[in-house]
Design brief:
single chain, f41 fragment of flagellin, N-terminal domain, two-stranded antiparallel ribbon, two-stranded antiparallel sheet, about 5% strand, rod-shaped
């Protein structure tokens, strides 16, 4: 009898172990069926996590690249829009005022340049555009505006224009203030940093420089031309009709050169935008490929999982039935 009792106890213990193991297996399969992922990655990868770790690192890297590319695309689009606003202020303006300066009436010329101060103000405002609390044209100090206001610029230019004895002197003084190295534009009007904005990281060993600043020669040409027209509109400078016409003609010539340079600048920026878009598409494709491979290693086959789960349920039910029968195995039942 003692041997029978020992055997019954061992058998009950073994059944309990089997029940615990089957319950754990059912929990694992249920989790895999609900999440679609392998619950035991060590089992799924055969204990080799190197491939999975490499995929995780590459995915994190691609996520960082995607963020950088997205920011670069937003900044480049905003810069392109700002430059379009600058171009809109001078589009058709130069040939119109040049024609009036060389062959129109003084009154018509004055009427044509009357809004030049406003045009200058709009151009400066465009170059002080901010996005996400960052100034787009201020180089490596995006927390500061790129330029002082157009009104402040004109305040610095009026004494220079008033002191000029001729149209040539006035034009030279204004152009030097905007264009000469170490000029008033660089030391007074410029509010940005000492360097260009950092390039956008598009991928491993791939970057793109879209950080145009308001110090760009094309933009300075445009501002110089608009400033000359604005000063002429105010009547600042030599008062003679010939001098006023000469100043407006010089303004038109400067604006024409500035517009050509601005078009080239926008074209270069457009090429950068195209490369950013190519990088975005490539990064998305690479990320999708990595995710597919990661999923292949970690996903649980729903059909296989459901089949295994059903098999475990059947075995667990059989175990419960066997355990119930053994629990009723008394001496009277045995002798019956």
């Amino acid at each position: 009898m003692s041997f029978g009792t020992f055997g019954d106890a061992a058998q009950v213990h073994r059944l309990r172990q089997d029940g615990t193991r089957l319950q754990q297996e059912m929990q694992r399969l249920t989790q895999e069926l609900s999440t679609g992922r392998q619950a035991d990655l060590g089992r799924a990868t055969g204990g080799d996590f190197s491939t999975l770790a490499g995929l995780g690192r590459s995915l994190r890297l691609q996520t960082a690249f995607a963020q950088s590319i997205a920011e670069a695309g937003i900044d480049a689009t905003a810069r392109q829009a700002a430059l379009a606003r600058v171009e809109a202020e001078i589009d058709g303006f130069a040939p119109h005022i040049l024609g009036l300066a060389t062959g129109g009436s003084l009154q018509d010329m004055a009427l044509a340049i009357a809004d030049a101060p406003e045009r200058l103000g709009q151009a400066v405002a465009a170059l002080n555009t901010r996005i996400a609390d960052r100034s787009l044209f201020s180089g490596d100090t995006p927390d500061r505006p790129a330029l002082m206001s157009s009104g402040e610029m004109l305040d610095h230019l009026r004494p220079l224009a008033a002191a000029a004895l001729s149209a040539g002197d006035m034009v030279a003084a204004v152009e030097d203030w905007f264009l000469a190295p170490g000029s008033g534009f660089e030391t007074l009007a410029w509010q940005g940093g000492t360097g260009a904005a950092p390039p956008a990281i598009l991928g491993e060993a791939q970057q793109e420089q879209t950080g145009i600043t308001a110090l760009d020669p094309a933009l300075r040409e445009v501002l110089a031309g608009l400033a000359l027209s604005a000063l002429a509109a105010e009547g600042t400078g030599p008062a003679g009709e010939a001098d006023r016409r000469a100043v407006v003609a010089a303004s038109a010539a400067r604006l024409e050169r500035g517009e050509d340079a601005l078009i080239r600048l926008r074209s270069d920026l457009g090429a950068s935008q195209a490369r950013i878009e190519e990088a975005r598409v490539a990064a998305e494709a690479a990320r999708a490929s990595l995710e597919i491979e990661q999923t292949r290693l970690t996903e649980a086959d729903p059909y296989r999982t459901a089949t295994e789960l059903e098999a475990v349920q059947i075995r667990l039910e059989q175990l419960y039935i066997l355990t119930a029968r053994l629990s009723r195995l008394t001496l009277s039942e045995y002798l019956r």
